[in-house]
Amino acid sequence: GIDITKLEVEAKVQYTKPDEPKITYSIWDFAGQEVYYATHQFFLSERAIYLVCMRLTEDGEKEFGRVEYWLQSIASRAKGCPIIIVGTCLDNKKCTKPWIKAIKDKLEKKFAERFLNLIDIYTVSNETLKGVSELLKDIVKVSVSKKYKIKCGIEEHRPVSWLCLEEAAKALSTTRPVPIITFKEWCSIAIKDCSFNDEKDVKLATKFLHDIGVLVYFDDNYSGLKDNVILSSTWITKVFATVVTLRNTMVTGGILFHRDLHHIWPPSIYPRKLHPFLMALMEKFEIIHRLEGSAIGNTLLTEELLNSGLKNLGPYALKPEAEVKDIKLDEGVSIIPCLLPEERPNNTLMRLFPENEDVSTQIYRIYSFQFIPNGFFQRLMVRLLHSQWQAKSFWRYGIVLYKGGSKLLVETDHLKHKIYFSLRGTETTWKMAKLIEGVNTLITDWLDVKYEIIIPCNHCLATKKKKSVCFPHV
User: Fold this and answer.
1) Residues 436, 453: contact at Cβ < 8 Å?
2) What sign does the CA torsion over 206, 209, 210, 211 have?
3) What is the pLDDT of residues 338-362, one digit of tens each?
4) Measured between alpha carbons, how far apart are the two ends of the chain, in Å?
5) What's phi and psi for 191, nearest 5 deg?
6) Is 12 helix (H, G, I), strand (E, B) or coil?
7) 3-state DSSP assignment of residue 178
8) Is the dihedral of CA 248, 249, 250, 252 positive or negative?
9) How many CB atoms lie within 10 A of CB 316?
């Protein structure tokens, strides 16, 4: 999903000090396939310059939609970072001067005022490299600007011990079969070999190395993640790619049986003792969700049911029967929302959330966004699966859940940038309020976009009026 390389650039004298003739960049090339979007947010850093690439030969909404996705994702997850849009395929016959001007004008009109950190638009040829030198000059200029240095903390003095620790991380990552070290051992090396004073200083330097992409470390109590340091960012991106990929035959239709983990992560490369840690990493970022006891709530996720779903490559419906038992990691099941089937299970919904049901107690809410980043709805699904609601059916763009005497249908429409909530049953007002609170928290934590909550008229919907009256949520 991500390729990482190094690039050393000769810097011009007017941009740098005489004793700083070169700048070394760590280049992170994010895969453009939508399936990898769920993992990208894991690696977006605030200590970076972002190049958003697009094909100049394409001027349709789909290509501009990809550009908007990246601009919004960067604005949400790496606030304040400079962004440059780079149009490729400049050597194509289609790319005449009028064509290029029209695309640039369209990009500026669509994005310049909304994304203030969009500093320029460049056009380059991948074949002849035309325009590349001008692009590199601008990148260097931004890199050494006082504003960027202050934002990234580059002007702060970094102790020699931090440089020593960075070199130690690089050396250890190449000598160890698996580039993971316990934080306890990491601290011991830092104090003994790099003259750190204590664990607090080591942690501060480790967080900095995480921010600049040298290693991966999370200082939290979630499933023991703070107890390990991943010495190679490249290695962990490959771990994620082994799971979140359409080429993975072990994850069909978004369902992962844990008994297949040893096929996905061969023990010779990924020792079994690391599997719980790797699963915890993916769960932390809500890329996957473990179905406790092979079940969601009190609903058993039976292998028979799943196998039936896999054969048909259709959406999965969970049936409330049999008993839930405690199971080990290898016996468990997880879902990967970004790989779930896209098809809406209309037949299943007719049974679980029928249109002809008494809707006198039904209430609705619609979230209307300026933009919904890919992966956001999947994270919302995982949050709902973590709650006390019991899932009855799920597909990539929707989920049905039950709780007590209530039913909840949540669906998204990415083209319209909307998420729809339909709630039926008892205590609907209180339950909807709790749902709204949870969604708003997720938006605050994950997005930086404008949105409004709309309340459709219940009577209009119940009587199936073509155009329903809507009210703003206050």
Assistant:
1) yes
2) positive
3) 888 888 999 999 999 988 777 667 8
4) 41
5) -75, -40
6) coil
7) coil
8) positive
9) 24
Q: Is the pLDDT of residue 336 over 80?
A: yes
- Residue 314 confidence (pLDDT): 36
In angstroms, how far is CA 405 from the centroid of its own chain?
34
Q: At what angle do helices 199-211 and 183-193 cross, to 10 degrees?
A: 100
d(CA 246, CA 72) in angstroms, rounded, equals: 25
Each residue's pLDDT tens digit, 251-282 = 777 888 888 888 888 888 888 888 888 888 88
CA distance linking residue 242 with residue 248, whole number of Å: 7
Identify the three-state secondary structure at position 123: strand
Instruction: Annotate 91-108 with DSSP letters as a single string.
Output: TSTT--HHHHHHHHHHHI
Other CB atoms within a 10 A radius of the CB of residue 345 amount to 20
Handedness of CA 276, 281, 286, 287 (dihedral sign): negative
CB atoms within 10 A of CB 374: 20
pLDDT of residue 428: 84
Side-chain half-sphere CA neighbours of 12 within 13 A: 13
- Tell me the C-alpha distance between 73 and 446, whole Å: 9
Which helix (H) or strand (E) element contains residue 74?
A: helix 61-77
pLDDT score, position 39: 64
Q: Which residue type sits at 180?
A: I
Q: Got the DSSP string for 381-407?
A: HHHHHHSSPEEEEEETTEEEEEETTEE
Helix (H) or strand (E) holding 202: helix 199-211
- Cβ of 160: how many Cβ atoms within 10 Å? 10
Cα 391 to Cα 400: distance, rounded to the nearest angstrom: 6
Q: Are 39 and 73 in contact (CB under 8 A)?
A: no
- Between 119 and 24, whose confidence is greater? 119
Dist CA 462 CA 223 (whole Å): 46
Per the DSSP assignment, residues forming a β-bridge with 333 are 257, 291
pLDDT-derived band at 329, boundaries 50, 70, 90:
low
